[in-house]
Amino acid sequence: MAERLQKIIAQAGIASRRAAEGLILAGRVTVDGKVIMELGGKYESSQRICVDGKPLTLAEEKVYFLLNKPKGYLSTAKDERGRRTVLDLLPEVKQRVYPLGRLDNNTEGLLLISNDGQLMNGLLHPRYKVNKTYVARVAPVPAENALDKLRQGIRLEDGLTAPAVVRLLDTVEDEAKVEITIHEGRNRQVRRMFAAIGCDVRALKRIRFAKLNLAGVKRGHYRPLTDAEVAELYHIAGIEQA
Ligand code: URA
């Protein structure tokens, strides 16, 4: 069945449909050797479709990894300026994987990496409210009534945040360690939430994503998800596993 090119690329697990549109508009996609830069055309997946010259392999095995991202790695698949990306930490993985969402360059912690575009897009959808827990080292020490503002929802330039679950873990001199759980995924959200109560985030680590945590995975290392963990993610994303 003929389908839009962006859909075929997304189904191959290379990028979300939106990102696939970007690849097409950037002239990085060819069909039977011809660069296609329009989004409207329909093609058969049996045609020779290439991204950056590499043919799509539609039946690529789906793989899922949990990475403990260190600081100093970009959460992208590729960087035009040649900076280190999280994929540099998985050199043995041959599939065309990419990270699920983003952690800032200077944020560390749990990042899922996969080539399952359908699952990744499902999990990123705001409808599913996937909890993400972070530990932030902030300064100065926030007062409880400031933390209450985060618990209630705080106004940022892109609108009110959903209520967060916030726990003061520890204080040392002028710094506090705060655990914060949010389910939205706005850009630099945790840093901006603390900035809105007058705190600077000195270090940020994601320690949980849904029920997954970093147990047994050292910084810079990764492990495959178990079948049960993948099934649970499918359940959360409300998608039937193929
Ligand atoms: N919130 C942030 O501010 N940064 C991240 O990397 C993740 C969440």
From TrEMBL:
One of its GO terms (cellular component) is cytosol. InterPro entries: PsdUridine_s_RsuA/RluB/E/F_cat, PsdUridine_synth_cat_dom_sf, PsdUridine_synth_RsuA/RluA, PsdUridine_synth_RsuA/RluB/E/F, PsdUridine_synth_RsuA/RluB_CS, RsuA_PseudoU_synthase, S4_RNA-bd, S4_RNA-bd_sf. It comes from the Bacteria. Pfam families: PseudoU_synth_2, S4. Its EC number is 5.4.99.-. Residues 3-62 form the RNA-binding S4 domain. The keyword Isomerase applies. Keywords: Isomerase, RNA-binding. GO terms for biological process: enzyme-directed rRNA pseudouridine synthesis. Belongs to the pseudouridine synthase RsuA family. This is Pseudouridine synthase. It comes from Selenomonas ruminantium subsp. lactilytica (strain NBRC 103574 / TAM6421).
